[in-house]
TrEMBL record:
This is Bifunctional inhibitor/plant lipid transfer protein/seed storage helical domain-containing protein. PANTHER family: BIFUNCTIONAL INHIBITOR/LIPID-TRANSFER PROTEIN/SEED STORAGE 2S ALBUMIN SUPERFAMILY PROTEIN, BIFUNCTIONAL INHIBITOR_LIPID-TRANSFER PROTEIN_SEED STORAGE 2S ALBUMIN SUPERFAMILY PROTEIN. InterPro entries: Bifun_inhib/LTP/seed_sf, Bifunc_inhib/LTP/seed_store, NsLTP-like. Keywords: Signal. It comes from the Eukaryota. The keyword Signal applies. Residues 26-108 form the Bifunctional inhibitor/plant lipid transfer protein/seed storage helical domain. Pfam families: LTP_2. The keyword Signal applies. Residues 1-23 form the signal peptide.
């Protein structure tokens, strides 16, 4: 029963994040080049970066997507609404775990990546 609950929460978060990143009235051209990267990141890594979920090591599939993704472009798609659904400390953790750490002091949306001393 608990697994069914977490699956429903994940699906809800997935659709919320996708809707936030790609609203239906999307007339902007900037950032569309990495739309597939963002969708792949959400599909394969979303469960590892959700707020109010336990922090666990990402899957090999997630890391494969992180390795191929245009991370700066994906970060440019992070909005204040997205930040409500994501735990950015987990995003930093997943990126580092997968061998693509976010540079300390860089930005991912409105989130400032903390100095290396604070990355866990």
């Amino acid at each position: 029963m608990a697994m069914h609950f977490y699956t429903n929460i994940f699906l809800l978060a997935f659709f919320a994040i996708t809707g936030i990143l790609f609203p239906s009235d999307n007339n902007m051209v900037v950032g569309q080049g990495c739309k597939a990267d963002v969708v792949n990141l959400v599909n394969n890594c979303g469960m590892f970066v959700l707020r109010n979920a336990p922090r666990v090591d990402p899957s090999p599939q997630c890391c494969a997507v992180v390795q191929k993704a245009n991370i700066p472009c994906a970060c440019s798609q992070v909005t204040s609404e997205t930040l409500k659904a994501l735990d950015m400390n987990k995003v930093v953790f997943v990126a580092k775990f997968c061998g693509r750490p976010l540079p300390p002091g860089s930005k991912c949306g409105a989130y400032n990546v903390p100095p290396a001393a604070y990355l866990g």
